[in-house]
Design brief:
With 162 residues, this protein is mainly alpha-helical. Among the domains are: 63 residues; 48 residues, no CATH class. Helices cover 57% and strands 0% of the residues. It is built from nine helices and no strands. The protein is elongated and about 85 Å long.
Length: 162
């Protein structure tokens, strides 16, 4: 089956876009346009087999190209999805707690336990760590314990030295 899609860009222009692609998906999309424009293959099925994608995927890409153009076809789409476990209510509570210096967490494990006690939601440690580190920009740092055998008078004398 041959598509009636007309590729507006030249093969040279398409090849110049190749190094600028940062995802495999966009590289394959661009490669499909190059193969289609160069007419190396007879059918869309042969192009899709050459790229190791399904024919319906290739058809969808060509449809997007026809309707929207190359800019939309090669646009990197970021997933904007809310967390299943951390609701807006939990987010607000965490944010307030992290920003308030009087009610701090002693670590991510403490935040995990607080969520479980307050909201009744069991959140995995790794997920909570990622969420708080990247979404809330939180750094839960706990100072190391001091040595038990340390002489407090020696510390005071050290701090007084000029």
């Amino acid at each position: 089956m041959i598509s009636t899609t007309v590729i507006k860009e030249s093969i040279k222009e398409l090849q110049e876009l190749r190094p600028k692609q940062t995802t495999i998906s966009n590289s394959k999309r661009l490669e499909s346009l190059i193969l289609y424009k160069s007419a190396q293959f007879d059918t869309l099925d042969s192009i899709s087999k050459g790229l190791s994608i399904s024919a319906s995927t290739l058809d969808k890409w060509l449809s997007i190209y026809r309707k929207e153009g190359i800019d939309i076809l090669l646009k990197i789409k970021k997933r904007k999805r809310n967390s299943k476990f951390i609701t807006p209510e939990i987010h607000k509570g965490l944010k307030e707690r992290v920003q308030n210096p009087k009610t701090f967490f002693n670590g991510f494990w403490d935040a995990q336990q607080w969520i479980k006690d307050t909201y009744g939601v069991d959140v995995e440690y790794q997920l909570l760590w990622h969420y708080m580190t990247y979404k809330l920009k939180a750094k839960l740092k706990i100072p190391r314990r001091s040595n038990i055998k340390k002489d407090s008078e020696a510390t005071a004398a050290f701090l007084k030295t000029p």
